[in-house]
Amino acid sequence: MASSYHRGQFPSPLFSPSRRSPITVTSYFPLPPFRNAPFHRRNRFLACAADTLLAGAHKEKWRGGLKGLVSGDLKSWLFREGLPPCKVVLQERHSHDGKYRPIHYVAASEDLQAGDVAFSVPNSLIVTLERVLGDETVAELLTTNKLSELACLALYLMYEKKQGKKSFWYPFIQELDRQRGRGQLAVESPLLWSEDQLTYLDGSPTRAEVLGREEGIKREYNELDTVWFMAGSLFKQYPFDIPTEAFPYEIFKQAFVAVQSCVVHLQNVSLARRFALVPLGPPLLSYKSNCKAMLKVDQDFVQLVVDRPYKAGEAIVVWCGPQPNSRLLLNYGFVDEDNPYDRLVIEASLNTEDPQYQEKRLVAQRNGRLSAQVFHVYVGREKEAISDMLPYLRLGYVSDRSEMQSVISSQGPICHVSPCMERAVLDQLLGYFQARLASYPTTLSEDEAIVADCQLNPKKRVAARLVSLEKKMLNSCTRATIELIEQLPDHTVSPCPAPFAPLLK
């Protein structure tokens, strides 16, 4: 799907205001309490903090005092509004396409050791639903029944952008616009890819996930007016139309994806504060799956304590949670080849046409399984996953009533079958893995060649990286299944017929 932000040289599309409602200078949201504090209190950190965060020519401006402040600059804004001293600097990473501005990222401004506090952002500079809606009850009601936290945060920032420079959040929104939802590889989420670009994901279940997520965003868009009416005390003072009239769907989707790429899931806080937008957080921070550092709440701040040593100038990384690569690409536009949480999803279901379906369903439930069961095959643990699946698949192959009675009366998940029945189960698994591999239009060697070619479109390269990792897991599953077949006592046994074999997808 084509996006509107390709029209200008350096556009800011992600929270673009609708042309139907002119930008005004009216601002409803109360400014943070510290903005009314005496000037010297609000700026007591500037002298020691400015040189730390600002790099290059900007540093000279800071040495000259407050005269060098640039009104729309994120770094200037953070210090002006009370960011404590920190040990990070913002640097630039150039885009592959010269018409797009470089993205910023957070790097160490000095050598750091594990346990050092890289930065602490005060709550007054963090966007949460509690802050947006001003009422924790309303926030929980909205997100429980109609809308996700992401949709509410995106809507709030879109209305704030309509305020232009009068919005307190203007510098932060400008930074999000600059990033354009691009992650650490400078690649946008596939939610913003064109139809032609989505073909890079052919054969991968991720393509269906993209389409499903887009349907979900569309449903949320259709519910946006609910926020307007349920939180009228908040939005009624915006001099703009109701959401679905003020913002076209494409603009909302771009804003949703931008918020999705930078929202932080905070722990040990109320529901209305659990999803937060943190300046200096993602996407300025890079994600890493094997990292332990997380943004955490510490009294009135959200801070980052690093988990490893850094040299000055190194990009700082944080943990992105136990997410598979398909989710990392969908949410943040990157794939992590060292991701220990990467996985394949296999859904097996008992055949509903089986005369013994109800008995098998009860046996499955007794062993903690469902009639339609999802199995996760984690990278490096393919053999373990197949062993976990086999009892369930064997259950589906049982056809003799006396055998079924024996299974019902037995305890535990093990369902003993004959060698020929075991061969039938393993043959089904092997055929399933081979069919999934055959569904990709490219080979693994072709994918690896695409990943290695730095001159190619980064979207194509990141998609090739994803599908190559999927294929490697499928190849491991195939090898593990073949090994089990080779261990059967008699290779000459013909597979047993299984008219009601379980279904795999």
Task: Please provide a written account of the structure.
This protein has 505 residues and is of the alpha+beta class. It contains 21 helices and 13 strands. The radius of gyration is 27 Å and the shape is elongated. It starts with 38 loop residues before the first helix and ends with a strand. The relative contact order is 0.11. The N terminus is likely disordered.
Which properties best describe this structure?
11% strand, 505 residues, 3-stranded antiparallel beta sheet, alpha+beta, disordered N terminus, single chain
**In percent terms, what proportion of residues is strand?**
5-15%
Q: Provide the spatial order of strands within the biggest beta sheet.
A: 3-9-8
Q: Residue ranges: pLDDT <50 for 5 or more in a row?
A: 1-72
Largest sheet: 3 strands, antiparallel
Helical residue percent band:
40-55%
Radius of gyration from CA coordinates: 27 Å
Overall 3D geometry?
Answer: elongated
SSE layout and pairings?
Layout: H1 39-42, H2 46-53, H3 57-63, H4 74-80, E1 88-93, E2 103-108, E3 117-122, E4 127-128, H5 129-133, H6 136-145, H7 149-162, H8 170-179, H9 195-198, H10 205-222, H11 224-230, H12 232-235, H13 243-246, H14 249-262, E5 263-265, E6 275-277, E7 286-288, E8 295-298, E9 301-305, E10 317-319, H15 325-332, E11 343-349, H16 357-366, E12 372-378, H17 382-397, H18 401-409, H19 419-438, H20 444-452, H21 458-486, E13 503-504
Parallel strand pairs: 7-10
Antiparallel strand pairs: 1-2, 3-9, 4-6, 5-6, 8-9, 11-12, 11-13
Helix pairs in contact: 2-4, 7-14, 10-14, 17-19, 19-21, 20-21
